[in-house]
Design brief:
alpha+beta; elongated
Length: 305
């Protein structure tokens, strides 16, 4: 009898221990008691009611989950295969997209989380159809991988928010974006040609920028040389003007100082004229010969009256 009681006691203790739950770091535990939500618990030990009374769902909050939406070759025969979309210019493209999300609300995710994958897939398809359907195939193929992920994150988050799934879209990637296999080769040729055009345009922009820098450098050099030349000519003109003013001042001073000398030379000139008229002064021009000036012959002495 005591063995039976001991066994029953051990079973009872084991049963009550089913109410102990370890919540690891990075996790949250959603507790439901008799089917009703009893709260959310963070990391640590949780002591609740045993199994059948409490249900504890441990959710890894920091784990990034992913949903893949892509073209399936096995579905190509269907009318609208998953991952194949019609562009605005009536061409088909195949898309493989991946959406990464985390749990933002553990309680909502515990209730509706089982719908998250399907809802995200539908939201991704709707966003792809809208974005691709409003653009031509050239724009889709060239810019789709770079442009669409940010649009996809915003669109999927806004579409899933009303359903209270308790999730947050972190990022999106376009893994593949290509036309159907039947025309893929032709589109590859177009893509290579467009890439070549973009390369040439980039080279042209770089050459233009380089030539612009060189012209700016030449312009600066010419402006500096012009300024230096103008400064040199102005300084030279100022120096010449200063020298001219100095000479003018000297001339004015000399002219006023030699006024009496001018009068003296005038009187001397009159005296020489009278002496020549009286025969007391003779010019040497008469003594010039082929051999030069000859002064050996003296002029006749004038007679006295």
């Amino acid at each position: 009898m005591r063995w039976l009681l001991a066994i029953l006691g051990l079973l009872a203790v084991g049963y009550w221990l089913t109410g102990v739950t370890e919540v690891r770091p990075g996790e949250q535990a959603v507790v439901r008691r008799f089917g009703r939500l009893a709260g959310v618990r963070g990391p640590g030990l949780w002591f609740g009611l045993p199994w059948g009374m409490d249900r504890v769902d441990r959710l890894a909050i920091d784990r990034v989950r992913r949903v893949t939406v892509g073209y399936q070759a096995s579905e190509a025969e269907s009318a609208s295969p998953q991952g194949q979309f019609l562009t605005g210019d009536h061409n088909l493209v195949n898309v493989d997209a991946i959406v990464h999300f985390t749990i933002s609300n553990a309680q909502d995710f515990a209730i509706h989380g089982h719908l998250a994958g399907d809802m995200i897939s539908r939201a991704v398809e709707a966003a792809l159809r809208e974005w691709i359907g409003h653009r031509g195939i050239d724009l889709v193929l060239v810019n789709g991988k770079a442009t669409f992920p940010a649009v996809l994150v915003k669109s999927v988050q806004s579409q899933t928010a009303p359903y209270e799934l308790g999730i947050e879209i972190q990022s999106a990637d376009i893994e593949a974006l290509y036309p159907p296999e039947e025309v893929k080769h032709a589109f590859d040729e177009v893509t290579r040609a467009q890439s070549s055009i973009e390369t040439r345009q980039q080279e042209a922009r770089q050459d233009s920028a380089r030539m612009m820098r060189e012209s700016q450098s030449d312009k600066y050099r010419i402006e500096q040389e012009t300024e230096a030349y103008v400064k040199e000519r102005v300084d030279l003109a100022r120096a010449e003007a200063a020298r001219f003013e100095l000479r003018l001042q000297q001339y004015d001073r000399q002219r006023s100082a030699n006024y009496l000398a001018g009068i003296w030379w005038d009187e001397i000139g009159k005296l020489f004229t009278r002496l020549r008229e009286s025969g007391r002064l003779d010019l040497l021009d008469n003594h010039l010969g082929k051999d030069g000036l000859d002064i050996t012959v003296s002029p006749a002495v004038p007679k006295r009256k």
